[in-house]
Design brief:
The structure holds 2 protein chains of 2 kinds. By secondary structure, chain A is an alpha+beta fold. In chain A, about 35% of the residues lie in helices and about 35% in strands. In chain A, α1 runs parallel beside α3 and α3 packs antiparallel against α4. The relative contact order of chain A is 0.19. The chains are: A alpha+beta, B mainly alpha.
Chain lengths: ~210, ~100
Amino acid sequence: MSRRLFTVVRVLYPRAWRERYATELSDLCEEVVKAGESTRVRLVFGLAGAALRERLRSARSSRRLAVLGASASAVVALGLVAAATNGFGMIAASVPTTPAQSVLLHLGPGRAQATSSMPEPKGVTVMASISAPRGIDVSADANIVGTANVEITTVRGAGSALSCRTHGSENVCTEALEWCPMPAASWQVHVVKQSGPAAEVRFVLVVGQKSVGL
Amino acid sequence: MAISEVRGSSDRSVLVLASLAGGPKHGYALIQDVREFAGVRLGPGTLYGCLSKLEAAGFVEALPAEDRRHPYRITANGVEMLRRQLSESARIAEIGLGRIEGTMA
C-alpha cells in the first residue's frame, strides 16, 4: 500500500488511535499486499470500515454527543478516500453498480415479525439499511443460510449501525458492511418489532460488483 | 475499558487471544495463524481494531518492534479472560451437543 494512499485512509481514524497504531497498521498492510494476500482496493475499504467503527467506539467511550458528527465527517472522508483512490485509477472496477435491493414488510400492531426474501446477484456486500416510522424500534436479520448474516437495528445502542437519522416521518439506520464476496443467492430477511402500532419497514441491501482481485 | 466491551466483539478477540496463547506474534503471523486454526480471515483493520481493544483492556501488550514487524503477547489477565471465555463456550457447546444427542436418540 502506498504511503500516499495510507495517509489518506488513516485520517479516518481517531487521532489517539492513529498516533498509537497507524505505523504498525501501515507496515502490516504493506506486508499483506506484498504477500499477495489482499489487494490495495480491498485494504482501503477494509480500513475505512474499521476506522468508522473506531470513531464510533471512541465517541461512545468518551460519552461525547459527537457520534453523528464524527460519523458524518468520517463518511465525508470515506467519500474523499473513494474519490482519491479513484483518482489513483485503482477502484474503477469496484464501484457498486448493482441497484440496491429492498423489501417492504408490513408488521401488525404490538410485537410482530415478518419474513421475506431478496434475490441478490453475486458481489460484495457494501451496505445495509433499515427504515421504520419514528418511535418504532425494529431489528432485521438478513442471511444466506450457512454463508452470511447481516444484522441491523434501530434500537439505540443495541447495534453497530453507522448512523441513524430521521428522514421525514421515518428513522433510517445504515450500516457499512465489510465488502465480503457473496454468491448469487436469495437472502432471507426477518424483521422483528417489539411493540407499537402497525408499521411498514423497509430493509435495503447494497451489493456491489466484485472488485478486481477480490 | 470494560470487559463487556471486549466481549462485544468477542469472536475475533477470542481468536486473537487464542492465537497469542501459543506465543507472541506480529500482525501478519496472527492473520496467518487465525486463518489456519479457525478458518477466519482477519483483515489488517479488523485485526488492529481487536488488538487496540485488547491492549486497552490489558489483555495483550506490545513487544519491541523487530525490523518493521510489531509483535504482541498475551498477558496474565488475557490468559484468564481467554480461559473464562473458552470454558463458557465449552459449557454451552456441551449442553447443546447433549441436547442434540437427546433429540436424536
